[in-house]
Model the fold of this input.
Amino acid sequence: EGARRGRGSGFVMGDTRGDDRDRRRRRSRSRGRDGDDRDGRDKESSRSRARTRSKKVEGDGKRGASRSRSKERRKGGGRDRERDKDRRRRRGRSDSREKKRRRRRRRSSSSSSSSSSSSSSSSSSSSSADARRRRKDASNDDKTREETRAKLLATVTALDAKVGDLPGTKHAPHPTEPNNNNNNPSLADDGKAGYIVSADGSHMTFFGGRGGSEGAGFGLAGTVGGDAADAVREEADGKRGMNAAMVDALLLHNKVRWRDETKPSRRVHIGNVNGGVTAEEFARVLETRVRTLFPGAVPWHYPLDKRGRVDERRAPGTRVIEHLYLNDKGFGFLETTALEDVPAILALNGVCVNGSATRFRRPKDYDPDANPLVRDGSYRDVFNRVFTAVLSDRVVDSPTKVFVGGVHPRSLTKLDLLEIVTSFGALSAFRCDEDGAGRCRGCAWMEYEEGESVAAKAIAGLNGYQLKGKPIAAALATPRAEVSRERGERRYTYEVPPEAEPLLEPPQRVLAFSNVLVRGGARADRAAATEDTLAECAGFGNVLSHHVVDEGAEGAE
Done:
């Protein structure tokens, strides 16, 4: 029994060792399978390595040795994985080479089998490829142009510093029907135009349905601004790759530049403004006067038809006054749309607005050399044409025709003298004797709109007025012209009236009086009359001496 126990125990121990051996084998196999699953290659080699390692572990029987061998096993597995990766890379490369070879064989076989049809197919394929390439290039060019146009538009929008609305600004549209009220005249408009007016009424900017905002003079046909826009269009048409949108952006950019450069030349100073009038009312009065009375002076704003009426269909929708500013001190400034509009405004000098004779003149900072009309040499012709269209230079003979003489030669211009004589009221006609340089030679003839009442005041105020250190003379030019008017004759004579000839002679130090003393009068009466005459003369200056002619002297009568 003991032997049987011993054998049994020995048998049991042997079975235990076998179980451990089988367990290690299974473990190594499972590791091998895991390696095969990860790598997918060389399962048999991994199993053989696992068996060899298990035998070494069984013979050794030490845990430390098994642990060290497990580390080596892990290291060996890593090397195997790297080796398997290299194999897969080489196989992938060989597969790709094989695919390329197959493609070449197919192409060569297809070209050799259809040699007759290859030329036509190749030409069609090449043409289709060229067409696709052209479409692609065209699309790329369109994209590039669109991007360029977008950048250019962004730049122009940033440069286009338009006048912003002031706080409380209101938009006042024009009425479509004229108003017969003289206190607040209106304009017959197309219903799409109006004014941008500030809350206090001091600022006004015109905007039109077809004319646009500030700078509308650029591109206005018949003006120097229109010629500038045409030059920009011609230059753009000569460049390649310029589409309509890019040309519009270029025109907008040049419009902003033209507006800023010509602003000093388009500005007019306003004086003697009644404090109760707003900028909108003031602009309406001037615009209505030009539109109704003198539309032919500015045909680029108000084109005329065959009957001499304003043709609304051809009108561009612009106005003479583009921006106007008035303050509470009785003066202000206005800006015209075109450079050619300034003479029309200057010709309205003295027009009555809300009971006050308004004064117009160039600002003090005006530089003639910066005016484009002066640079191209057309300023004088344009000025005379527009100015005389508003204020006629033909003064008909009438009882209210006024003559002004004695002006120092070449000391004043036509506008300087006009500013002086319009202080009493607006003129209906004005003619100045000018030299070749546009300077007044000394004489002028005029007629006031209000006739005799204003003419009498003007003569009283202008006669003896010291101008440039020299007194001027004023008198009625044709006081007896009523006879020729009754006969139906219209005469235009420009002569010095006889009443004004003595006033134009050079001044003298000796002044003779007649019919002052009565013949045969008492000595006391003679002395009293002499004292009264000296007192009257002393009101004009110092009297150095006087002499009374004796009653019996020669020529005393």
